[in-house]
Amino acid sequence: MVAVPLTRDMRLVAVASPAYLARRGRPQTPRDLAHHDCITFRFPSSRRIYKWELAERGRTVEYDVGGSFIASSGEAICRAAVAGVGIAYLIEELAAAHLAAGAVPVLEPH
């Protein structure tokens, strides 16, 4: 079998609204996410929750984050983040319009 990539590599970003960050504080490290409401993505086909992949000390670490909002739509996740529900982890292109509307990137070094 031969694996063929279907898309180019996509960068993911963690974003939150200024209101959420004022209320809950800004996470400084990926481990801080355990104390935050994270907006998670559920794969429609498998019902599995996507684990956030963040860089820590030069390697990629998967984080099983939690929160009260789960969706299988990137657009719904973006809207929830802008509304102050929590921190979202999104494809950068999808987050771009929401960043322009006031969402703030967090954990940028990771």
Give the key terms.
single chain, 110 residues, alpha/beta, D-Maltodextrin-Binding Protein, domain 2, two-stranded antiparallel ribbon, 7 strands, 26% strand, globular
What sequence of helices (H) and strands (E) makes up the elements? EHEEEEHEHE
Instruction: Label the CATH architecture of the domain at 33-106.
Output: 3-Layer(aba) Sandwich
Remind me, CATH topology of the domain at 33-106? D-Maltodextrin-Binding Protein, domain 2
The assigned structural class equals: alpha/beta
Strand order of the largest sheet: 5-2-6-1-7
| Beta-strand residue fraction | 25-35%
Account of the protein in words:
- The chain is an alpha/beta fold and 110 residues long.
- It has a domain at 33-106: Periplasmic binding protein-like II (D-Maltodextrin-Binding Protein, domain 2, 3-Layer(aba) Sandwich), CATH 3.40.190.
- It has helices at residues 18-24, 74-82, 92-100, and strands at 12-16, 38-41, 52-56, 59-63, 70-71, 87-91, 104-106.
- The strands form 2 sheets. A 5-stranded mixed beta sheet has the order 5-2-6-1-7. It has a two-stranded antiparallel sheet with strand order 3-4.
- It is globular.
- The mean pLDDT is 87.
Q: Topology of this protein?
A:
Elements: E1 12-16, H1 18-24, E2 38-41, E3 52-56, E4 59-63, E5 70-71, H2 74-82, E6 87-91, H3 92-100, E7 104-106
Parallel strand pairs: 2-5, 2-6
Antiparallel strand pairs: 1-6, 1-7, 3-4
Short description:
By secondary structure, this protein is α/β, with parallel strands linked by helices. It has helices at 18-24, 74-82, 92-100; strands at residues 12-16, 38-41, 52-56, 59-63, 70-71, 87-91, 104-106.
